[in-house]
Specification:
Residues 16-313 form the NADP-dependent oxidoreductase domain. Helices cover 39% and strands 13% of the residues. It has 13 helices and ten strands. The chain is globular and about 50 Å long.
Length: 327
């Protein structure tokens, strides 16, 4: 396993790490036993960083991680997020008292004294530009409740604002072969400023596994069903913002990336790992098999410079104009 420095922090994190939204239960049912076994297995393979949030299963993901960490002696870092338990656009939910309460709830769930990386969970632009929440985070850092803080952003403009105006140590960004826009400016700027990048939605909600068709169905409690058109939260979080049927057509044109690279998923994750400035990629998982499948990306054959140019041209000419929502 390769480990990368996470921005200006003291953490070196596995280049393939994992997000835990799926084991919270918002991607269909996952048993507690399967989730715990998968977390242990990931750590056994050298993974030392997990991303979660207080709303993933109403705290379920945090609690599962906390239970596993009690049984491990390794240094394992946890990034969690806040701001989505209440109205994410209401400034009154980002006061010191509110954020401290969110933080202490996550600390209880995780069973730890300090959160390694505390992230604002996809806030509105107004919350960011007000900047009051960053003063709160600085206070929590001084109090020892959090070690570092960052922001999970929805748009390039939000990311650039954070980079230009705050002391955030990281940005969590939607980036994948079907969502390449952040690479050119936001991620490049972050690299220059020594700000870590967590690449989320790396497989475009599973599209880039290549296993879905236009007839594929998803469970009622899977966001790929109920948020397909942005009914529950930002449409960009589901299939990268692409209409599902159009996305299937686009993925069909990308199946060549798997040639000599195992699977489409391996290739798609490898592409992200080749992007300068990306610290770690955080695919989700629901089983040990998915952990193992995603870890293969690190050893997958890299793309040539010519192939990288081809993929960039494909994005800008065929994909970009179909992405919905502010991004």
């Amino acid at each position: 396993m390769k480990y990368n420095q996470l921005g200006n922090t003291d953490m070196k994190v596995s280049e393939v790490s994992f997000g835990t939204w799926a084991i919270g239960g918002d991607w269909g049912d996952v048993s507690k036993e399967d989730a715990i076994q998968s977390l242990h297995h990931a750590i056994d393979q050298g993974v030392n960083f997990f991303d979660t949030a207080d709303v993933y299963g109403a705290g379920r993901s945090e609690t599962l991680i906390g239970q596993v960490l009690k049984e491990r002696s390794e240094d394992v870092y946890v990034a969690t997020k806040f701001g989505r338990r209440d109205n994410f656009a209401d400034l009154s939910n980002y006061t010191y008292d509110k954020v401290k309460a969110y933080c202490e709830n996550s600390l209880r769930n995780l069973g730890t004294e300090a959160i390694d990386l505390y992230q604002i969970h996809c806030p509105s632009t107004e919350v960011l530009t007000d900047q009051g929440v960053f003063e709160v985070l600085e206070t929590l850092k001084q109090e020892g409740k959090i070690r570092y803080y960052g922001v999970s952003v929805e748009t390039d403009d939000q990311g650039k604002f954070v980079l230009d105006n705050t002391k955030a140590s990281s940005l969590q960004v939607i980036v994948n072969l079907l969502r390449q826009k952040p690479v050119k400016e936001m991620i490049a700027q972050a690299a220059k400023q020594n700000v870590g990048i967590l690449a989320r939605v790396p497989l475009a909600s599973g599209l880039l596994t290549g296993k879905y068709t236009k007839d594929s169905q998803f469970p009622e409690n899977d966001h790929r069903n109920y948020n397909r058109d942005g009914a529950a939260f930002n449409v960009g979080e589901t299939f990268g913002g692409l209409p599902f049927e159009k996305a299937i057509d686009l993925v069909d044109q990308l199946k060549w990336i798997a040639d000599d690279r195992g699977t489409m998923a391996d290739a798609a994750l490898k592409w992200i790992l080749q992007q300068e400035g990306v610290t770690t990629v955080i695919p989700g998982f629901k089983s040990i098999a998915q952990i193992d499948a995603n870890l293969k990306a690190a050893d997958t054959k890299p793309f040539t410079e010519k192939e990288l140019v081809t993929l960039s041209e494909f994005y800008w000419s065929q994909v970009h104009d179909h992405i919905r929502g502010d991004y």
